Amino acid sequence: MKEILEVRGDFQMRQLDLDDLEQFNALLRYAFQVTTDELLKTGWEEDEIMYAKMPVLKASYVLGWFYHEKLASMIVVYPMQVNIQDEIMEMGGVTGVATYPEYVGRGLIGALIERVIAHMKEEGQIMSFLYPYFIPLYRKFGWEIVSDKITFTIKDSQLPKAVPVPGMVERVDLDSGDLKNVYEYFAAQTHGALIRHDLEWEEYWRWDNDDMIAAIYYNERHKPLGYVVYYLKNEIFHVKEIVSLNSEARHGIWNYISAHKSMLNTVVGFNYSGEPMAFLFEDSEMVENIEPYIMARIVDAEEFFLEYPFPLQPDFKIHFRIHDEHAPWNDGDFAVWWEDGKTCCRRVEEAPDVNLVELNIRTLTAMMLGYKRPSYLYEHEYLKTEYYMLQILERLIPVGKPCFSDNF
């Protein structure tokens, strides 16, 4: 007997299992408008994509509303990890938020979201990330934008001149261990990067066509230091991802891209670093379009403060007054201080006005992850504090925006 978590008239909320695979796949395809023709273009047969999603259903927490045993609405949480300022934190990746149109307006999604926030806390997932299809909805439930995607377009005449490097680039299979190793090193030293395990790599490649190519830069000792994943079509070099561990690898990869100059007229791709690329090119008159990409939410504020690697340890307490109507364990006052090299945090009944910072969970998330600086948030009235506290917060929070390039 499957456990029913909530009942609303003829609607029942419960967790999905493998018996629900067909309905799970059907709702995903309907909501995200994945046609049979699009599946065939990416090399998938209809049944193949359904069973390819089986590991997702096994590994994830999938919650849904059923109307007379028919799946009406659902949400998926992947158990993941993310690098936050060089600290690997447990994270719940929210995806697959979908409802058939005939059931919209009944509050089904809102109830599912509140349930999974509580579930993530129970599972020790301190953070949650998601790719938003409708930003206002997720802001309502406490998520906030924390990273951008910059789409760049470079003419062939703007490609950089070759820079001598001691190594060389080699094309490799997409499942190359060297490619995965490069990303593993990159993620370990990059704020905001997703830690990719087997399931994350499967999702990374899932919708790519058979023309995708991977090329790795090796140094003179044949150590892999960077890679580019791309495909060529209609004289355009399409970059899926560039990862480099040092400047040598970066130059080597761009040398390789420029070597295609006779075959192309444009390079297009995505940059997730939060910094435009134009400054790095001799001819900087290129097109770069910026748009919000990933949203995040602090699920458990107390545990987040305890794990966050503050670069300084003041000899006084800072009080945070957090507003979070969808996670009551976060809603209230917290004292943060440092003892014997460790961060301490506890909930307090009523924080004193001294060293007090008041903000909601969205603003706290954007600030602590470095997407927006404390001074910016103060100037735009997203947080309340005394002016002297801004200087303290600016020193306590490392500079640098999250670099998150995955979609799940």
From TrEMBL:
Is Ribonucleoprotein among the key words of this record?
no
All copies of the N-acetyltransferase domain together span 11-166
> In the Enzyme Commission scheme, what number(s) does this protein have?
2.3.1.-
Does the keyword field hold Transferase? Answer: yes
Supply the alphabetized keyword list: Acyltransferase, Transferase
- InterPro entries reported in the protein's UniProt record: Acetyltransf_17, Acetyltransferase_Eis, Acyl_CoA_acyltransferase, Eis_dom, GNAT_dom, SCP2_sterol-bd_dom_sf
Q: Which domain of life is it from?
A: Bacteria
UniProt GO molecular function: aminoglycoside N-acetyltransferase activity
GO BP annotations of the record are: aminoglycoside antibiotic catabolic process
Looking up Pfam families in the UniProt record yields: Acetyltransf_17, Acetyltransf_9, SCP2_2
Q: What is this protein called?
A: GNAT family N-acetyltransferase
